[in-house]
């Protein structure tokens, strides 16, 4: 269970850094210019979450040799987790905007 939680956090963190991190602005622009398919991955939390999940399970688990289907499953976990993270961030932002609008009235 601890491994799953760690995997979820690592996948969401990697996804957030790849999509929103300022440190990756220049590499994102460069890659997007020359490889349009990768641009789609860097702008979609669900897509990037899947590939982040795949990368994280490959880096974190050494037992995938015996169960390669786990790579795909953990990719799905990363995708769902990243999408839920984005929904949470948008909900917080929306709530802050509503509170700000209420205070102004």
Question: Which key phrases capture this entry?
Answer:
about 100 residues; about 85% helix; about 0% strand; flat
Please give a quick description of this structure.
This protein is 84% helix and 0% strand. It has 105 residues and is an all-alpha fold.
Structural commentary:
With 105 residues, the chain is mostly helical. The chain has one domain (2-104). 84% of the residues lie in helices and 0% in strands. The chain has 5 helices and no strands. Helix 1 packs across helix 4, helix 1 (2-20) crosses helix 5 and helix 4 crosses helix 5. The chain is flat and about 60 Å long. The mean pLDDT is 87.
Set down the secondary structure blueprint.
Layout: H1 2-20, H2 25-34, H3 36-42, H4 45-60, H5 69-104
Helix pairs in contact: 1-4, 1-5, 2-3, 4-5
Secondary-structure element string: HHHHH
Low-confidence stretches: none
Q: How many helices?
A: 5
Kindly state the number of beta strands. 0
Number of domains: 1
Quote the distance from N terminus to C terminus. 47 Å
Task: Name the overall outline.
Answer: flat
Helix- and strand-based class?
mainly alpha
Biggest sheet features:
none
What percentage of residues falls in helices of 4 or more residues? over 70%
Strand content: under 5%
- Please tell me how large the radius of gyration is: 16 Å
Average residue pLDDT:
87
């Amino acid at each position: 269970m601890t491994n799953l939680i760690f995997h979820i956090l690592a996948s969401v963190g990697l996804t957030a850094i790849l999509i929103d991190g300022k440190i990756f602005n220049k590499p994102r622009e460069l890659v997007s210019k020359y490889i349009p398919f990768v641009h789609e991955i860097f702008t979609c939390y669900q897509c990037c979450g899947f590939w982040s999940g795949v990368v994280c399970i490959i880096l974190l688990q050494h037992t995938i040799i015996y169960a390669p289907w786990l790579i795909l499953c953990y990719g799905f976990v990363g995708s769902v987790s990243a999408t839920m993270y984005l929904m949470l961030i948008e909900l917080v932002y929306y709530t802050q905007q509503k509170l700000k609008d209420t205070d102004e009235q």
